[in-house]
């Protein structure tokens, strides 16, 4: 409220002093303009200090733009007070007017995305500097160089200035429409209000100035600065909170924004061909190169991120299908692979076999030697079982001390052979078991083989092999049993395989 009152008083004082002196560019009216610009600078800087870190940079850029306006105005005031014999002050004014564009271009063109490569931010800064340098060169050459004598030069300068001012304003409005977070919306609301009103005022002021400045014209320049001071210091309007662009719109606008930088360089390059054709051509090439580099860096970052994403998805997939203790497959993998094996067996007639393997007296092993020794034993058994398989077969940790082996294209006979090899390899491990009647770790195995009648549901074959395993446990452990339906396929009269006397009963 107090800021509003102060601004009204300053605007009135400006008008009264300008009317009293009868000239827009007298010291007192200029001092009033500086006071309004200073208020805007203070308001924007205050907003910068109050903002969270992520949004601070854009507010600081806006404050820098206003600072350039203040310095530009101060130089004009000094010229009025002291004169400008060497033309240094007017050169300095041109420097500040060109530098004003630098933070403006940077703040409307940057995407400010957190994952953007640093080199892209540096490229944008370099390009904004190119814009400022080109502008300085263009203004100096057109207004005080040999081309100044040409009466059309002033119009070229005016159109160029209009194009830049309105491009900045339009880009800021687009960014406002694309901002998804409220704080960013508020920033672009303040920036676009200022840039748009400033562009309109500059267009009118410059046209009026061509025919000699009337006393009131200086007050026009107060308007965008007073407006910015009010917007920055007051609470944001409610509709800013309610307005939500879609993600697609927001991303498209943010990706499109940097094009304004290249556009400005091309625009300036085109105008500079009036001064030097080769500089204009070079500027156009620089603009294309800059945009190409920008796209290349961003694309390479996206490819890196995609590769990292694919890799972690693959790792996750592997982890989901793996048993963390033994490193072999787990039940998730078993379910899919067994289904595939059953389908393959049904389709080709080359049936698969299932081995349900259980470590004997494992509870006692754990109880006597501890859980850590139990884990080590499980790892050794898993690795020994894996060593006996072909690449197409699968070994799975099914439960605590239970393993399942899927043998592709394996009859009951082949499965018994494989089971014997497995019982043998565990025997060769010679892991001492203080509470087992066999004094070492042994395993019992139940076998079930797919037949043409076996349903596709993996549970059926698993249950059959589990029943066979139960038989093996009941018949004294450290032995192999074949499920009833599968045993009929065996050539000899199968009655279980006992490791102790190495005979088939
Ligand atoms: N160390 C360790 N032990 C486990 C793990 N998972 C299950 N166990 C243990 O394995 C034991 C299984 O015991 P039971 O199901 O009674 O089987 P068993 O003692 O081998 O008896 P039989 O199978 O009849 O010979 C339990 O004591 C579980 O605590 C594991 O990941 N690590």
Explain what this protein looks like in three dimensions.
The chain is 69% helix and 6% strand. The chain has 505 residues and is an alpha+beta fold. It has two domains: 2-309; 331-504, Reverse transcriptase/Diguanylate cyclase domain (Alpha-Beta Plaits, 2-Layer Sandwich), CATH 3.30.70.270. The longest helix has 44 residues, at 277-320. The radius of gyration is 41 Å and the shape is rod-shaped. The model has no long low-confidence stretch (mean pLDDT 90).
The 3D shape can be described as rod-shaped
Beta content comes to: 5-15%
Bound molecules: guanosine-5'-triphosphate
Order the strands across the largest sheet as they lie in space: 2-3-1-4-5-6-7
TL;DR of this structure?
The chain has 505 residues and is of the alpha+beta class.
List the helices and strands and how they pair.
Layout: H1 2-21, H2 27-50, H3 53-82, H4 88-109, H5 118-144, H6 153-178, H7 182-210, H8 217-233, H9 238-242, H10 247-256, H11 259-272, H12 277-320, H13 331-348, E1 353-359, H14 362-369, H15 371-387, E2 394-397, E3 402-407, H16 412-429, E4 443-449, H17 458-474, E5 479-482, H18 484-487, E6 497-498, E7 503-504
Parallel strand pairs: 4-5
Antiparallel strand pairs: 1-3, 1-4, 2-3, 5-6, 6-7
Bound molecules: guanosine-5'-triphosphate (GTP).
Based on the model shown, name its key terms.
505 residues, alpha+beta, Alpha-Beta Plaits, 2 domains, 18 helices, binds guanosine-5'-triphosphate, diguanylate cyclase, transmembrane helix, transmembrane, membrane, Diguanylate_Cyclase
């Amino acid at each position: 409220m107090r800021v509003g009152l102060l601004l009204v008083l300053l605007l009135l004082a400006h008008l009264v002093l300008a009317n009293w002196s009868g000239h827009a560019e007298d010291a007192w009216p200029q001092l009033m303009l500086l006071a309004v610009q200073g208020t805007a600078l203070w308001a924007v800087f205050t907003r910068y200090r109050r903002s969270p870190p992520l949004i601070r940079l854009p507010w600081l850029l806006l404050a820098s733009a206003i600072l350039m306006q203040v310095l530009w105005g101060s130089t004009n005031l000094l010229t009025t007070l002291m004169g400008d014999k060497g033309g240094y002050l007017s050169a300095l004014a041109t420097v500040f007017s060109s530098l004003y564009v630098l933070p403006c271009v940077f703040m409307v063109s940057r995407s400010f995305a957190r994952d953007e490569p640093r080199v892209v931010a540096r490229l944008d800064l370099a390009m904004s500097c190119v814009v400022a340098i080109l502008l300085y060169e263009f203004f100096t050459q057109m207004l005080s160089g040999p081309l100044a004598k040409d009466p059309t030069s002033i119009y070229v300068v005016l159109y160029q200035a209009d194009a830049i001012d309105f491009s900045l304003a339009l880009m800021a409005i687009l960014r406002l429409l694309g901002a998804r977070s409220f704080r960013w919306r508020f920033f672009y609301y303040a920036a676009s209000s200022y840039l748009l009103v400033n562009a309109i005022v500059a267009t009118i002021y410059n046209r009026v100035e061509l025919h000699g400045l009337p006393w009131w014209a200086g007050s026009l320049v107060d308007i965008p600065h007073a407006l910015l001071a009010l917007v920055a210091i007051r609470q944001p309007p409610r509709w800013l909170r309610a307005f939500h662009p879609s993600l697609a719109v927001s991303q498209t606008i943010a990706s499109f924004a940097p094009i304004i930088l290249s556009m400005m360089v091309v625009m300036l390059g085109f105008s500079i061909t009036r001064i030097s054709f080769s500089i204009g051509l070079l500027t156009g090439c620089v603009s294309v190169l800059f945009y190409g580099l920008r796209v290349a860096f961003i694309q390479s970052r996206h490819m890196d991120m995609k590769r990292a994403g694919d890799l972690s998805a693959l790792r996750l997939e592997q982890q989901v299908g793996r048993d963390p203790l033994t490193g072999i497959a787990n039940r998730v993998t078993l379910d899919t692979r067994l289904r595939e094996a059953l389908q393959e067996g049904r389709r080709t007639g080359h049936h698969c076999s299932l081995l349900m393997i259980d470590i004997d007296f494992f509870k006692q092993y754990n109880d006597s030697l501890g859980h850590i020794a139990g884990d080590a034993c499980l790892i050794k058994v898993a690795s020994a079982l894996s060593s006996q398989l072909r690449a197409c077969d699968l070994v799975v940790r099914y439960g605590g001390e239970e393993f399942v082996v899927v043998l592709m294209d394996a009859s009951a006979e082949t499965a018994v052979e494989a089971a014997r090899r497995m019982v043998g390899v565990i025997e060769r491990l010679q892991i001492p078991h203080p509470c087992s009647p066999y004094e070492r770790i042994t395993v019992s195995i139940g076998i079930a083989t797919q037949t043409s009648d076996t349903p596709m549901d993996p549970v059926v074959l698993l249950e059959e092999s589990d029943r066979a395993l139960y038989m093996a446990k009941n018949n004294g452990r450290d032995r192999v049993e074949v499920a009833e339906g599968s045993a009929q396929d065996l050539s000899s009269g199968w009655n279980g395989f006992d490791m102790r006397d190495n005979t088939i009963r």
